[in-house]
Amino acid sequence: MASEDVNTRSESAVSTIVNLAEEAKLAREGVKAPSQQILSICKSLVAGGFAGGLSRTAVAPLERLKILLQVQNPHSIKYNGTLQGLKYIWRTEGVRGLFKGNGTNCARIVPNSAVKFFSYEEASKGILWLYRRQTGNEDAQLSPVLRLGAGACAGIIAMSATYPLDMVRGRLTVQSDKSPYQYRGMFHALSTVLREEGPRALYKGWLPSVIGVIPYVGLNFAVYESLKDWLIKTRPFGLVEDSELGVTTRLACGAAAGTVGQTVAYPLDVIRRRMQMVGWKDASSIVTGDGMSKAPLEYNGMIDTFRKTVRHEGVRALYKGLVPNSVKVVPSIAIAFVTYEQVKDILGVEMKISD
């Protein structure tokens, strides 16, 4: 028995030494052990989720006003511009009205942002590997076009994974104190839509969302990373003293990225938001606030929604809510990018987005 115990302990010690040796070898080769990889992934997801939640909460009133402007009935205008709209919400619904739907929005944006940032990093690594293999240049770096592709992949994955929450958030957001409440919260809305409209209803507006997210998220990442690279390489106006950009400069890069992305993709955001309201019997009265809609929401697909919107309301209708969205997107994207990188620094994750 004593001999067996000694043998068991010897085998255990040898196994431990072998495992440590393998981890040391992986570390020398620049490859992380599985446990380290999992921890790094978790930290990256936490950083992305925190960045998304913080950035969206900071601009929640503008987010709600944007959606209300997008779907309001043209025959009964309640929200006429950014300042007037915010004042109207404050007067009729109070402070809580300004943040209505933000809980659901954060419940959606936290996993969405986590998946989006992580997917971008993984897509970037995969695309860079293929690019280097194709060109035979091991020192090649991602071009703006390749970054656009990686960002588009990340946007599609994140959008598809969390789309039902976005659809429900849109409906919760347009409810007001004067409208007949149909949904009491996120889970009640999900169950109600499933029961009354079926599972497919949770993905109404998915196609224009995916089409819109390709230029939106793709341009966000491509512009942000390309601007950072350009600033580090050229160092204009003495903005960059070393290889790292300051928080203010990164905020400016994020703001520029958000401005370009949202301007290109905004019409598709209007279309998908209107499609999300289809099938909701109280949507028209909720949007107009008078209980007597003159133009019920009767859209049959993305093309039909686009055609009817332009025919009845003109091309300008495709940009309803653009001003509050611009005011919202610029700081939101900037805060999200900088927060993501700062949280990863705090958590000790070595890889940055541009790496």
Care to describe what's here?
- Keywords: Membrane, Mitochondrion, Mitochondrion inner membrane, Repeat, Transmembrane, Transmembrane helix, Transport.
- It is a multi-pass membrane protein.
- It is found in: Mitochondrion inner membrane.
- This is Mitochondrial adenine nucleotide transporter ADNT1.
- Pfam families: Mito_carr.
- This protein is mostly helical and 355 residues long.
- It has a single domain (22-347), classed as Alpha/alpha barrel (Mitochondrial carrier fold), CATH 1.50.40.
- It is 74% helix and 0% strand.
- It contains 12 helices and no strands.
- The protein has helices spanning 2-28, 34-58, 60-71, 82-98, 102-135, 144-174, 186-197, 206-234, 247-277, 283-288, 302-313, 322-347.
- Helix 2 (34-58) runs antiparallel to helix 12 and helix 3 (60-71) packs antiparallel against helix 12 (322-347).
- The longest helix has 34 residues, at 102-135.
- It is globular and about 60 Å long.
